[in-house]
Specification:
Helix content: 10-25%
Strand order of the largest sheet: 1-2-3-5-4
CATH topology: STM4215-like
CATH class: Alpha Beta
Shape: elongated
Number of helices: 2
Number of strands: 5
CATH architecture: 2-Layer Sandwich
Strand content: over 45%
Largest sheet: 5 strands, mixed
Length: about 110
């Protein structure tokens, strides 16, 4: 459910986005995964809401401008909250830059 929600929410970027791994040839793409899925609110031992902690990885060979902020803005409309954005070290062996966007989504279990 959350995977398709993320993919659909970012479809207007016209950049390949896939769960965990990408096998295409684009010079810019996004992968993502859930690094934590936990109960956030409980009532009478029943989970009332679930927190989805998501990491989106932007992989690119050329400048991405404000792509990370565009991602945050699109997902914020859907109810996500930005936790952080961080640049990872340049991967000299592959020639790829890597930016990480961490987000949180609270799903009400009604």
């Amino acid at each position: 459910m959350i995977n398709n929600f993320i993919i659909n929410s970012l479809s207007s970027l016209n950049i390949p986005i896939t769960f965990q791994k990408y096998s295409g040839t684009a010079s810019k793409y996004i992968t993502f995964f859930t690094y934590l899925n936990q109960g956030e609110d409980f009532s009478e031992d029943e989970e009332e809401s679930t927190g989805h902690y998501i990491q989106l990885d932007i992989w690119y060979k050329t400048d991405i401008g404000d792509l990370a902020q565009q991602i945050v803005n699109l997902l914020k409309i859907q109810g996500f909250k930005k936790l952080d954005i961080r640049d990872m070290p340049y991967e000299a062996d592959t020639g790829i830059y890597h930016t990480v966007v961490s987000l949180f989504y609270l799903e009400e279990n009604i």
